[in-house]
Amino acid sequence: MPISRFDAYSFDDWRPYPRLPDHLEADALCRSAPIDWFFPRKGMPAIGKRLCAQCDVREECLDFALTNGVHFGLWGGMTERERHSERQRRKVQKNLE
Question: Residues 45-48: contacts with CB within 8 Å, 24+ apart?
Answer without folding.
Answer: 46/74, 46/79, 48/74
